[in-house]
Amino acid sequence: VCAVMKSINLWKSTIIAPLIVASTAVQVGVYYGPMDRSRSDLIVNYGKAFLEHMPRNSKILVQGDINCHVIRYLQACEQMRPDILYFDQVLMNFPWYEEKQANILKVQGVIFPGKMFGGPPVIKLEKHQYTWEKFLEVNVKKNKREWFNCGGWHFYD
After folding, report:
1. Any idea where the domains of the chain sit in the sequence?
2. Which stretches are transmembrane (predicted)?
3. How far apart are CA 120 and CA 146, in angstroms?
4. Of 17, 29, 113, 151, which alpha carbon lies 20 to 30 A from 95's?
5. Separation of alpha carbons 70 and 77, rounded Å
6. What residue ranges in 46-144 does DSSP mark as E strands?
7. In a 3-state reduction of DSSP, which class is residue 80?
8. 130 in helix, strand or coil?
9. Residue 124 has what DSSP assignment?
10. Which helix (H) or strand (E) holds 61?
Protein backbone atom coordinates (compact mmCIF):
# COMPACT_ATOMS: atom_id res chain seq x y z
CA VAL A 1 0.00 0.00 0.00
CA CYS A 2 2.80 2.44 0.88
CA ALA A 3 4.55 1.78 -2.42
CA VAL A 4 1.32 2.49 -4.32
CA MET A 5 0.76 5.74 -2.39
CA LYS A 6 4.33 6.86 -3.05
CA SER A 7 3.94 6.21 -6.77
CA ILE A 8 0.64 8.16 -6.83
CA ASN A 9 2.22 11.12 -5.00
CA LEU A 10 5.21 11.02 -7.33
CA TRP A 11 2.86 10.97 -10.32
CA LYS A 12 0.89 13.95 -8.91
CA SER A 13 3.98 16.02 -8.28
CA THR A 14 5.71 15.27 -11.58
CA ILE A 15 2.74 15.43 -13.94
CA ILE A 16 -0.27 17.16 -12.35
CA ALA A 17 1.54 20.12 -10.75
CA PRO A 18 3.32 21.16 -13.97
CA LEU A 19 0.03 20.80 -15.89
CA ILE A 20 -1.70 23.14 -13.45
CA VAL A 21 1.10 25.69 -13.70
CA ALA A 22 1.14 25.41 -17.51
CA SER A 23 -2.64 25.77 -17.85
CA THR A 24 -2.58 28.84 -15.60
CA ALA A 25 0.21 30.37 -17.69
CA VAL A 26 -1.74 29.68 -20.90
CA GLN A 27 -4.85 31.35 -19.49
CA VAL A 28 -2.88 34.41 -18.40
CA GLY A 29 -1.25 34.60 -21.83
CA VAL A 30 -4.54 34.27 -23.70
CA TYR A 31 -6.70 36.59 -21.58
CA TYR A 32 -4.29 39.21 -20.22
CA GLY A 33 -4.26 41.38 -23.35
CA PRO A 34 -8.03 41.68 -23.81
CA MET A 35 -8.59 42.17 -20.07
CA ASP A 36 -5.72 44.60 -19.39
CA ARG A 37 -7.17 47.93 -18.24
CA SER A 38 -3.93 49.41 -16.92
CA ARG A 39 -3.98 52.17 -19.52
CA SER A 40 -7.70 52.85 -19.29
CA ASP A 41 -8.54 56.38 -18.27
CA LEU A 42 -12.31 55.94 -18.31
CA ILE A 43 -12.79 56.41 -14.56
CA VAL A 44 -10.38 59.35 -14.33
CA ASN A 45 -12.10 61.04 -17.29
CA TYR A 46 -15.46 60.45 -15.62
CA GLY A 47 -14.22 62.08 -12.42
CA LYS A 48 -12.65 65.02 -14.27
CA ALA A 49 -15.82 65.63 -16.29
CA PHE A 50 -17.85 65.55 -13.09
CA LEU A 51 -15.60 67.89 -11.09
CA GLU A 52 -14.96 70.33 -13.94
CA HIS A 53 -18.65 71.17 -14.14
CA MET A 54 -19.25 71.65 -10.43
CA PRO A 55 -19.77 75.23 -9.22
CA ARG A 56 -16.95 76.73 -7.19
CA ASN A 57 -16.92 75.78 -3.48
CA SER A 58 -19.54 73.06 -3.89
CA LYS A 59 -20.19 70.29 -1.40
CA ILE A 60 -20.93 66.79 -2.60
CA LEU A 61 -22.51 63.87 -0.78
CA VAL A 62 -20.88 60.91 -2.50
CA GLN A 63 -21.97 57.29 -2.49
CA GLY A 64 -20.27 54.39 -4.23
CA ASP A 65 -16.66 53.33 -4.57
CA ILE A 66 -16.07 54.71 -8.05
CA ASN A 67 -17.55 58.11 -7.26
CA CYS A 68 -15.78 58.45 -3.93
CA HIS A 69 -12.37 57.12 -4.88
CA VAL A 70 -12.04 59.00 -8.16
CA ILE A 71 -12.80 62.31 -6.42
CA ARG A 72 -10.37 61.46 -3.62
CA TYR A 73 -7.69 60.52 -6.18
CA LEU A 74 -8.14 63.65 -8.30
CA GLN A 75 -8.03 65.96 -5.30
CA ALA A 76 -5.13 64.27 -3.51
CA CYS A 77 -2.92 63.24 -6.42
CA GLU A 78 -3.72 65.69 -9.19
CA GLN A 79 -4.70 68.65 -6.97
CA MET A 80 -7.90 69.06 -8.98
CA ARG A 81 -10.66 71.18 -7.47
CA PRO A 82 -9.49 71.49 -3.86
CA ASP A 83 -12.31 74.00 -3.37
CA ILE A 84 -14.87 71.18 -3.43
CA LEU A 85 -15.70 69.31 -0.24
CA TYR A 86 -17.02 65.78 -0.51
CA PHE A 87 -18.58 63.55 2.08
CA ASP A 88 -18.50 59.78 1.73
CA GLN A 89 -21.99 58.68 2.75
CA VAL A 90 -20.80 55.19 3.66
CA LEU A 91 -18.02 56.43 5.95
CA MET A 92 -20.42 58.79 7.70
CA ASN A 93 -22.03 55.67 9.20
CA PHE A 94 -19.00 55.14 11.44
CA PRO A 95 -18.48 57.02 14.73
CA TRP A 96 -14.81 57.75 13.98
CA TYR A 97 -15.72 59.72 10.83
CA GLU A 98 -17.23 62.62 12.73
CA GLU A 99 -14.44 62.48 15.32
CA LYS A 100 -11.74 62.77 12.64
CA GLN A 101 -13.49 65.13 10.24
CA ALA A 102 -15.44 67.54 12.46
CA ASN A 103 -12.54 69.83 13.37
CA ILE A 104 -11.28 69.94 9.80
CA LEU A 105 -14.70 70.61 8.30
CA LYS A 106 -15.86 73.03 10.99
CA VAL A 107 -13.44 75.55 9.49
CA GLN A 108 -15.32 75.08 6.20
CA GLY A 109 -18.65 75.73 7.92
CA VAL A 110 -19.84 72.13 8.12
CA ILE A 111 -21.80 71.02 11.16
CA PHE A 112 -22.36 67.42 12.19
CA PRO A 113 -25.65 67.41 14.13
CA GLY A 114 -24.66 64.24 15.98
CA LYS A 115 -21.83 61.76 16.40
CA MET A 116 -22.76 59.64 13.38
CA PHE A 117 -25.27 59.21 10.60
CA GLY A 118 -27.99 56.94 11.91
CA GLY A 119 -29.82 55.66 8.88
CA PRO A 120 -33.33 56.14 7.62
CA PRO A 121 -35.72 58.35 9.57
CA VAL A 122 -38.22 55.49 9.83
CA ILE A 123 -36.12 53.74 12.47
CA LYS A 124 -35.62 54.94 16.02
CA LEU A 125 -32.32 56.79 16.21
CA GLU A 126 -30.04 57.03 19.21
CA LYS A 127 -29.54 60.52 20.67
CA HIS A 128 -26.11 60.86 19.05
CA GLN A 129 -27.31 59.88 15.54
CA TYR A 130 -28.72 62.07 12.78
CA THR A 131 -30.59 61.70 9.51
CA TRP A 132 -29.75 63.18 6.11
CA GLU A 133 -32.66 65.54 6.59
CA LYS A 134 -31.15 66.92 9.81
CA PHE A 135 -27.63 67.07 8.34
CA LEU A 136 -28.81 69.02 5.29
CA GLU A 137 -31.19 71.19 7.30
CA VAL A 138 -28.35 72.35 9.55
CA ASN A 139 -25.79 72.81 6.77
CA VAL A 140 -27.66 74.05 3.69
CA LYS A 141 -29.29 76.97 5.50
CA LYS A 142 -26.03 78.01 7.16
CA ASN A 143 -23.76 77.66 4.15
CA LYS A 144 -23.61 79.60 0.96
CA ARG A 145 -22.00 76.69 -0.87
CA GLU A 146 -24.12 74.57 -3.16
CA TRP A 147 -24.76 70.95 -2.18
CA PHE A 148 -24.93 68.08 -4.64
CA ASN A 149 -25.45 64.34 -4.51
CA CYS A 150 -23.37 61.89 -6.53
CA GLY A 151 -24.16 58.21 -6.46
CA GLY A 152 -27.78 58.12 -5.47
CA TRP A 153 -29.91 57.94 -2.40
CA HIS A 154 -31.78 55.01 -0.99
CA PHE A 155 -35.55 55.37 -1.09
CA TYR A 156 -35.63 56.07 2.65
CA ASP A 157 -33.00 58.81 2.55
Report:
1. 1-36, 42-150
2. 15-33
3. 23
4. 151
5. 10
6. 59-62, 85-88, 116-117, 129-130
7. coil
8. strand
9. P
10. strand 59-62
Cβ contacts of residue 140 below 8 Å, gap of 6+?
Answer: 147
Q: How far apart are CA 119 and CA 131, in angstroms?
A: 6
DSSP H helix total and E strand total for the chain:
6, 5
Answering whether pTM is above 0.90, one says no
DSSP-based three-state secondary structure for 55: coil
Which helix (H) or strand (E) element contains residue 5? Answer: helix 2-11
Alpha-carbon gap, residue 30 to 150, rounded angstroms: 38
Q: Which amino acid is at 28?
A: V
- Would you place residue 56 in the very low, low, confident or very high pLDDT band (cuts 50, 70, 90)? very high
Say if residues 148 and 62 touch (Cβ distance below 8 Å): no
User: Strand pairing partners for 86?
Assistant: 60
Question: How many residues would you count in the chain?
Answer: 157
Q: Half-sphere exposure (CA, 13 Å, Cβ side) for 142?
A: 14
